[in-house]
Structure formats: structure tokens, C-alpha cells
DNA sequence: CCCAAAATGACCTCTCGG
DNA sequence: CCGAGAGGTCATTTTGGG
């Protein structure tokens, strides 16, 4: 969820000049904020030993700092390139976030080498927000300051252009960190996969995991993950059918009450992440890897309401004793829209709607279909060809029969109801019809999400503090409210102003007693800001987010370039913020 | 009445999984 | 082989403020 229309408008493209950037990456450091480390990387190269040079150079050419690379090689050996990649990625992700968390917990997978932890590294070359000289960021030209800190000029320029000249140094550094992470993924493409502009060879990108799983043999040595983990990985390549996740209330046989969560993932704080289930290959594996290796729960909302909505959810919530919102919503088109039954032809067998999308069918299409059906009224049933045309269009645009020979797209009110929102939730405040469809199409299905979140009610009878990223029209907030979980403090981050207004107005309509803080941009949410919020509220109990899917969604044939795409890379902000909160949480309990 | 901004509609012809 | 898909781009029409 979350409107990202603003993101594209400011001329920043994560993928601009990819091939040039990758080349330019050779001698630079990935996320080294000061000059010393750049110099130091040369020494690290030689200390890594002559036998390592090939592997070492390989990673250096991807832009990882030399010191980090040699450290990882020491720890895991050089033959296990995939593992090294993973560790480097993970570490540079941590690195790009401020090191509040000196106590980066030793990865259980690498426990044997506990002696050489990351600590010395992080204290060397990480520039935590606390250490950041405030005076510099206030006085000096931020561009100059960033370059002085060791960032590449084009990175600094990009960050300043994107965030504006008045952005704080912290925000700029955060931004560059995320941009680097997105780029690091790109750099991981095997050389022959690198995009080339030879005529029609249009950017065919593959994600990190694609490369790991399909491009190379699985590492055998130093693979400390359990057999169970391997099973997860092969299973995760196939979406479950039926898509009922750990169970849906309408089918008691589907319910599973036990699962194993990796130790790193165990809450509190609890997190709940959502995105489209049918993302390009490997995307969910990458997301899962970042989110502490938690296995996704794939659920189709057609088991909750009358419209399909195939989504993957990664969360660390308990799955015992879930309960649904009551009353259970109607689960067929006829139950949801009883008045339409009289117009429904016998040859239209649909009982469920397809996914409710952000765009809707046109009036012209309604006309064409009406004429097509009318023209063969002399028959009892239209000919097969006409039926097929009409049904194809109806399925494609989610049309319903609203009159004699007349189909029409759903109205925003009807979409609201299907998704479990109160009537007129998105109405008013000057929002246009088009924008209502857009906001609703990007939203959660409330009943589905509420079923998953229902376990919180017993755990937090006095209410929760919620951090809601990419909130959109507040699906999570509505779900918790309908469950009767009191909302103490809610921090909601949403790009679109109309969506923020919708949530704000809902907040007032429902007489909430807590505080609602709304922020414009996830980039604003750095360690300092989080620290302020968490100390004011006493930490967060739940972090919810569904990051933009524009570059993952199947119907996007133009820029479906996976997680590293312009919009969808905001996933890394979800991870960045979640990881910060997780690491800061022990201070607030 | 003019003009900018917003809305609309036609076209795009993808990848994935069953 | 078929169908589903929180989409993008462009030209054109409509809306709304002065």
C-alpha cells in the first residue's frame, strides 16, 4: 500500500545510468563514510593473502569496502561466494544504519567464529548519527560535507537533489545508504547479465536470489543453516494452492497452529510486512532473507471476502488462537451484491471477483459489451465467441451486471466495503474518484489482516504503539480498531497527502484517544527521529508496512524490474527502519 | 473566455504458475 | 496453452479557477 506517485516526479531514478555506475563502482567503497577506510582497503587487500585475490577483487569490484571483504573472507573462507555475498549485503545494510547497536548480535549461523565479530569494523568506519558533527551539517554546504565524509560526489548530488538543500545530514546519509544497497543488488548481477544497450536488449534484471539459487550451485561448505531451512527455500519457490497461509477461518482444515520462527526474528517488537504474492522470481526469497529468514505466509483474500487478493505476508506474530472479525463478510458476488442477481446471465459463472486494482473499466467498454450482447438477443444464449469476449473483459476489469445487458465497474463505495473499510472511508476531503480507486487498490484487505493481527488483542489489553509505514488509507489501523485493540500511539508514514487526510479524518471520526503522528516520507525516519518517538512513547509494539509493488506487479509490463526498481526498492527502507526499531527496543522495556 | 491541471481511454504484449 | 495481474505511457478530453 502507499501512494508512491510522488516518488517518480522528482527525477530520481535508482536505475539511471546503471552500466556506467557499475563500472564506476570498481574502486569506490560501498558505504564508507570517511576517507580513512578507502586508504585502508589497500592494506586489507594484501593482508587477505595472495590466494584470496581473485575472490577479493571480485567483491571489491562490486563496491564493497576492502576491509569488510577481507573480514568476511577470513570468517567464511573464499570458496563460499554465495555466503560471502549474503554476509556482505547484510553487513552493509547494518552499516548504513547508525550503530546504536554496537551489540550487533552474533549471527547464530556463524557462532563458531564469535571471536572476530563486526564490532571492530563498525566502530572504525561507521559514522553514527550521534557522532555526526551537528555544526558541520548546519553551517557547511551539505554537498561538500558529504564528499568530505568520503561519499562519491554523484551520490551526494543525487541525495541533495532528492531530499532538497535543507535536508539534514542524517537524512542524506540514510538516503545514500539505501541507494547503495539498491545498487549493490544490481552490482551482484553476473557480468553477462549486465544490461546492455544493444538495440532491443532492454534491461532484463534478475534479483540477487535468482542468481544465488539458479545461477550457481548451492554452497556446501560453511553452510550452517539447517536442513529445514533448505526445505523452506525450495518450498518458497512455489506458491501454495489453496493459498490459505497458516489457515483461514472459513476452512478449519486449513489451520496450522505451530511454526518455527528463526531466533533473530522473535518479537517483540512484532512486525508485519505485506506485498504482492506474484512478484518476479526470487523477490520473496530476498525479502524473506532480509526479514530475518521468516517464511512468508501467502494468503488469498478470496477466502475472506468476495474478491481475490493474493498477497504474501512476512510477520513474527504468533499464529495460535487467531479469530476473524465479525460479522464475516459475504464471500460470493451474489451475497455481496444481492441486487445484481436479477441481471446476472446464466452463462457468467463467476462467483468471486478478481483482484481489485487501482484502475477501473471505462464507460466505452460498458457500451461495447452492451451492444455485443444486444446484437444476439434472438438466441437464448449468445454464441461462444461473444460469451468469451464478454467474460474475458468482465474478468479483466472486474465488471458486474448492473442492468439488462449492461455491465459496469464497481463504485468506490463498493470497493471500500469489499476491502473491509467503513463506508465512505475514502470519501470527501476533495479526493477525486480516480484517486479513490487508486488508494483503495493499493490497500490491505482489512478482514485478512485483522485475522492475522487478532492475536495481539490478548497480549496487549491496554493497547499498542504502532509504527505504520506506507500506511496508505490506514488498513492496519482500521483492522486493529475493528479488533478492539486500543491504539495508544500511532506513527503513520505516508507519501500521499490525500491518504494522510483520510487516515486523520478516520482517526477523528472514530474518537480515538491516542496520538496520531503522521509523517510524509520514510526517508525522514532516521535514528534520531525514531529515538525521539520511541522515548516519547516507550517503544513500538508493532511495525506494519506494505512497501510499493509498482515494479513487482504482474500487470506492469514496462518497469517490472523487481526489488531494485524505482518504487519497490523502498522495501529497504522498511527493513532499515524495522532493524533500527528492533535494535533500539531493548532500551524501552 | 482562456489556460493549466486533472481525468480519461487506448494501447502496451510482460512473467509466472497451473 | 491459458489467464491473472496494488501498472506505465501517451494523446485527448474535461474540468475548474481567474
Strand order of the largest sheet: 2-3-1-9-6-7-8
Globular, elongated, flat, extended or rod-shaped: what is the shape?
globular
- Which strand-content bin applies to the residues? 5-15%
- The total beta strand count reads 9
Content-based structural category: alpha/beta
Task: Figure out the total of helices.
Answer: 25
The CATH architecture term of the largest domain is 3-Layer(aba) Sandwich
Report, as a whole number of angstroms, the end-to-end distance: 30 Å
Classified in CATH, the superfamily of the largest domain is Vaccinia Virus protein VP39
Task: Give the low-pLDDT segments.
Answer: 1-52, 97-139, 184-236
CATH class of the largest domain: Alpha Beta
Subcellular location: Nucleus
Keywords: DNA-binding, Methyltransferase, Nucleus, Repeat, S-adenosyl-L-methionine, Transferase
Pfam families: DNA_methylase
Enzyme class: transferase
Q: In words, what does this structure look like?
A:
With 589 residues, the protein is an alpha/beta fold. It has 3 domains: 8-193, no CATH class; 208-328 and 436-588, Vaccinia Virus protein VP39 (Rossmann fold); 333-418, no CATH class. Helix content is 41%, strand content 8%. The protein is built from 25 helices and 9 strands. Strands 2-3-1-9-6-7-8 form a 7-stranded mixed β-sheet, sandwiched between helices. A two-stranded antiparallel ribbon has the order 4-5. Helix 16 (363-374) runs antiparallel to helix 17, helix 18 (412-419) runs parallel beside helix 19 (433-441) and helix 24 (527-537) packs across helix 25. The protein is globular and about 80 Å long. 46% of the residues are buried. The protein binds a DNA duplex (18 and 18 nucleotides) through helix 16, helix 17 and helix 19.
